[in-house]
Amino acid sequence: MNIYDLTATAIDGKHIPLSEYRGKALVIVNTASKCGFTPQYESLEQLYKKYRDRGLEILGFPSNDFAGQEPGSNQDVESFCKMNYGVSFKLTEKTSVRGPQAHKVFAFLTKEKPFKGFNANHPIASLLESNLRTNFPHFMEGDSVKWNFTKFLIAPDGTVYERFEPTTDPMEMEADIVKLLEKR
Questions:
Q1: CA-based nearest residue to 38, from 85, 73, 106, 74
Q2: In the chain, N or C terminus with fewer CB closer than 10 Å?
Q3: Does the annotation mark 81 as catalytic?
Q4: Rounded mean pLDDT of the chain?
Q5: pLDDT score of 10 more than 80
Q6: Can you tell me the distance from the alpha carbon of 7 to that of 166, in angstroms, rounded to the nearest whole number?
Q7: Helices (H) then strands (E): counts for the chain
């Protein structure tokens, strides 16, 4: 199985076969509107606008799995993203991204790219890890998504190239994105 065998449902209810991203670099990210990492929408949109004509796609999966930080309806999420960050990349309907109820896309991604730790250079990495270990210790178990804005970079051939934790700003992925786009 690879990423192109999977599907998702867009925020407007339409079916998204991930095979439509074959031959493109793809960022898959779980998102939330009320998170300290929510401003990453801005960087994601910047990357999308800069590289979409060269073959970059971004697919955001809104999720309320982490401290209820995505409480609204699909329409609320879509409005928030467009009004506050000008998001033009595709969003899915709200879904779960961790645990036994995790969307098949995230079950696949976390199996392919296990958790290797937070970006220690980020100013709040130790605070995030401490908060998770204290308040949500089960989140730190295994390789599942640990928090909002975990990003997976998929190569044009469908392989999971890299996993970037919330403590990695999307702009820090730019060199890897360019590398994949140049190989297309």
A1: 85
A2: N
A3: no
A4: 95
A5: yes
A6: 24
A7: 5, 7
- State how beta strands 56-62 and 25-31 pair: parallel
pLDDT digits (tens, 9 = 90+) for 114-128: 999 998 888 888 889
Q: Report helix, strand and coil shares of the chain as percent, to nearest 5.
A: 40, 20, 45
Place 70 in a pLDDT band, splitting at 50, 70 and 90: very high
Neighbours of 114 (CB within 10 A): 10
Choose, from 10, 35, 124, 171, the residue flagged as catalytic.
35
The answer to whether the CB of 160 falls within 8 A of the CB of 122 is no
Query: Residues for the chain: how many in total?
Result: 184
Instruction: Give which of 155, 181, 114, 173 is closest to 3, Cα–Cα.
Output: 155
Decide: 23 and 156 in contact? Cβ < 8 Å: yes
Domains of the chain are 3-27+48-183 (3.40.30.10)
Q: Is 0.85 topped by the overall pTM?
A: yes
What is the token pair recorded at 112? 């392919």
Residue type, 24: K
